[in-house]
């Protein structure tokens, strides 16, 4: 389960960082400090779990270590990403705007390297694609929910900020659904046999988790998009934030199940 939570926490942190360029500075310094601090916390926790389980890369990595023989490079990339996001957070505290874009870009680049190194060699392109769409979806869902709260903090924050994140959330959710559909029914057939067995009334533990992943992580969030958009349209930010809470819970549950299926069953969903 260590690798499951490493993937989940690191992807959540990278997603929060990836959404920051889409947030206007009128959201205030506190928004950027909160999101970058949250990203630093989740990414540090992810790295700490791996180091606690597999140790520091001083020799031959232990069996099952993320990245296999590239475990040392993975730890270095993840540590670099954490260091850059911590420095990025401090630039907002000390008002150093000139280096913010470079630190954010460096943290995302190191995070992307971590994603590539953590992907299994057997189906690396598909795993990287699923990881990237997972990062974008997690980031959009979490950032939109947090931004909804900021309308109580920054009273003159334009509604276009939340509308933009809502559009991004819808786009990334559709993209994530398309990638999962390709993995499920495409050449890889990841989990398709198990899901079909459950649909036929047969017992398959992995198939049950596949259906839970699809219903909680994709069907549920897709069903809420219309309600979120309508509440944003009428500028009811509190109502939109309430629905975004439910949306975030479903996305988190679905993505955590997806990470479990990838590690336990080898399904890149």
Question: What report would you give on this structure?
Answer:
By secondary structure, the chain is mostly helical. The protein has two domains: 1-118; 121-269. It has nine helices and no strands. Helix 1 (2-19) packs antiparallel against helix 9 (237-265) and helix 2 (29-54) runs antiparallel to helix 3. The chain starts with a helix and ends with a helix. The mean pLDDT is 88.
Q: Notable features of this structure?
A:
2 domains; 77% helix; mainly alpha; 269 residues
- Characterize the main sheet: none
Helix and strand sequence = HHHHHHHHH
Uncertain spans: none
Q: Give the distance, in angstroms, between the N- and C-terminal Cα atoms.
A: 17 Å
Mean pLDDT: 88
Shape, per Cα inertia axes? flat
How many distinct beta strands?
A: 0
The percent range for strand residues is: under 5%
Concise summary:
The protein has 269 residues and is mainly α.
What layout of secondary structure does this protein have?
Blueprint: H1 2-19, H2 29-54, H3 71-94, H4 100-118, H5 124-150, H6 159-185, H7 192-199, H8 205-233, H9 237-265
